[in-house]
Design goal:
The complex is a heterodimer of chains A (76) and B (323). By secondary structure, chain A is α+β, with helices and mostly antiparallel strands. Chain A has helices at 11-27, 39-44, 68-75, and strands spanning 2-6, 32-36, 52-55, 58-62. The longest helix of chain A has 17 residues, at 11-27. Chain B is mostly helical. In chain B, helix 4 (75-87) crosses helix 8, helix 7 (124-134) packs across helix 8 (136-159) and helix 7 (124-134) runs parallel beside helix 13. Chain B is globular and about 70 Å long. Classes of the chains: A alpha+beta (76), B mainly alpha (323).
Amino acid sequence: MKIEILGTGCVKCKKTKENIEKVLKETGVEAEVLKVEDFETIMKYGVMVTPAVVIDGEVKLAGKVPDEKEIRKWIN
Amino acid sequence: MADIFYPLQWIADKLTYEVFGITPTTHLAASVNFIIYDVLKIVILLAVMIFAISYLRTYITPEKTRKVLGGKTGLRYHLIASLIGTVSPFCSCSSVPLFIGFVEAGVPLGVTFSFLITSPLVNEAAVAVLWATLGLKATVIYVVSGIVLGVFGGYVIGVLKLERYVEEFVYKIKVGKQANEQESITIKERTDLALESVKDIVGRVWIYVIIGVTIGGIFHGYAPEGILEKYAGKDNLLAVPIAVLIGVPLYSNVMGMIPIVESLIGKGLPIGTSLAFLMSVTAVSLPEMIILRKVLKKELIAIFVSIVALSIVFTGYLFNILL
């Protein structure tokens, strides 16, 4: 599984990454976590509000930090 | 105005004079009373305002905004852009993707700027804190000025035809299909989102509020009456531009800044000068300019900051004369 976090390094993006890594660790799910900061890629996904989470090429969420419950739902 | 908040004053009085046992006429009592009353009032208004606006906001998506404004020129669309800006979520980290998204949808540069100017200037958290500290009248003035500023600033940028000062790559980017378009979300989901924003924003700003109110409270209790009237009153024509020059590079802790300004007003700082200062703090900030530099050339940023700063100075003078 490939998880991309879109955003240009604001506090919320960092928090998003932390939450995702925490859930991955707890559930033992293997995934590649990438931070995407270049605008071209962000815009390609049609995302205009960051942070956003893309899992295997699909935008799951944009504009807010996901909570652990949401992340669990996506990765299972 | 005082009536609905009367219970809070009662609590503040009880705590200050009875629970803490501070003698009412002292400087310390004035400070402590001010701090308790302000913090209570600000937090309550913050929660209510954020909830209401966040709920409303679940109906406004960037995708819808792009559709409404795409290819439209005319003062009316500057006003619409500016109004959408007042209720839009705005984190300076989203300004670039939003900017590119607008340009790609064919939203004219000037209309995009009307949005970009008003969006940080008028936001529900600032409005709540303003209302709690400076009262309804000053808040209405601030909001209306913020909208007019966005319409005017964006209009001027549109008239000047500054498209060539947008970085070329912006025009080449193709925005993908918005995969996350929330179509039919339920009332419960909207309520949950709104509650989440309340938690998120209050969780982030409470510390600034308390710091701001404490500094304001100390100033309120200890600074001599009328001290600012003497040095930065209406007769001092330099006061407004200086306030704006200080405010422009300052960043983000406007939630803390407002209670400080409240105490400055109490000591005679004119309301126009105060509002001009607060507007310049929220409207433009150094970090935001650095982020926008990725899509805008230096010239456009300079023009943008100058137009906004000059308009704010004008607004400050205007309200110093009118009020």
